Amino acid sequence: MSASLNPCDARPDDEGAVVAAATERTKDPLHWPARMWIALLIFSGVILLDGLDISMIAVAIPEIQHAFGIGAATAQWLVSAYILAFGGFLLLGGRCADLFGRRRVLVAGLAVFALVSVGGAFATDAGLLIVSRFVKGMAAGFTGPAAMSLLTTTFAEGPARNKAFGIFNLFEASGYSSGLLIGGLLAALNWRYIFVLPIPVAVLLLLAALRYLPPDPPRIKGQQRLDIGGAVTLVAGMLLMVFTVVSAEEAGWASLRTVGGFVLAVALLAAFVAIERTVKEPLVRLGIFRNRGLVAANVGAALLYGGAMGFQFLIALYLQNIQGWKPWQMTLVLLPAGLMVVVIGPKIGALISRFGVTRVLMVGLVAFVPCYLLMLRIGPEPDLWGVLLPASVLWGVGFALSISALMVAGTNGVADHEQGLAAGLLNSSLQVGGACGLAVLTAAIAPGTELAMLYPGVGVILGFAVLTLLAQLIRRRG
Q1: Dihedral angle over CA of 236, 242, 243, 247, nearest 10
Q2: Rounded-to-integer distance, Cα 456 and Cα 241, Å
Q3: Cα–Cα distance for residue pair 76/88, rounded to 1 Å
Q4: Using an 8 Å Cβ cutoff, are 403 and 368 in contact?
Q5: Which residues of the chain fall short of a pLDDT of 50?
Q6: What is the distance between the alpha carbons of residues 387 and 293, in angstroms, rounded to a whole number?
Q7: What share of the chain is helix, strand, coil (3-state, %, to 5)?
Q8: pTM of the entire structure?
Q9: What sign does the dihedral 49-53-58-61 (CA atoms) show?
Q10: CB-based contact 179:52 (threshold 8 Å)
């Protein structure tokens, strides 16, 4: 394929060159040739696969527990192992994409993902299954930022990238929401089908990437090398931080393991910063954090995802644990949220181009406040029309508008050679924010299934929504 698939090859500070490259094949940057659409579908398919793999397994945990005779403490690592590795390797994965070639990293990650999925499908004990989940999460830590940075370097900053992000995030949200329903249906047949489904999807994406994405340019002799010291301290610090967060509820927030884990994680990350300040070729150029838009987008992404994941967790507790609903029934309640994402996602580029990224973001963030306030009205009997469905619609509107706007804000103004790093930062903020949000939520709600025990959790997610709004308002006034 010709290099015209990559309209951002020009220097990002040379606006004329960017516009010329973006319109090389078409006078209208919003009307793309077929190969650009195929490329966007590949990038979006990767993030869809990640979302499916995280959410599908959640509804199959009871069947897996029964099959292997394991308790809840062990079973939760089927989800946590993936999140742990995903969050721990995202920054390294994004930087490797910048240094070694985004297509190379994407293809290698998909190959590992597919192979390990085969091992998970035929695992004979819970330990092997958990290990396979960890390795898949690690592979996703490379494919996610590679796909996102390919998008940002394929579509020029402005209307074209805004539109592409709307479609990209449509696939991401669809993966999470449809994964619950698909997982429930597959688990009803055989839980192993949940591990089989990602195999053909990953292989198809791998073959499409090899066929339709242009090869990476050859590495030049003397080109920047990977900062090994920075990579080791970063990955170790991120892994320990995420592990400590997701296991804090089980170990106790004041336990020696939890406190020691946080202290050691902070020490490792401080060592990483010290290395990056002195090393000639840093893994993460610390000067990138002078980009206020990128920093604000990362803070917003962490807070937003903390509340969003908490909302889904509370809905599951309320409908499944208290009301006794099946997972697929709960998915139908969340269907309006998915429909809002489907309707708004393709239009997000036009909305951002017309009203600006900040206004679109603020409208999206505001929508979460009444959504979470409605959850304070949950009662002994589910109120579909007065509480659950309106909350689902508001959540979908908020997620569709704000997540796309944050992705645009967090990558605008970043040089092409650091787009993988920017993508890794954003995805890390999402995953760590989601893990922290769930940890705070589970600490706030009391054990058991009584309705009154859920209300403190609603207060937590409402707090996340308000903090996200305040952070963006402070940035605007700053």
Answers
A1: 160
A2: 25
A3: 18
A4: no
A5: 1-27
A6: 35
A7: 80, 0, 20
A8: 0.78
A9: positive
A10: yes
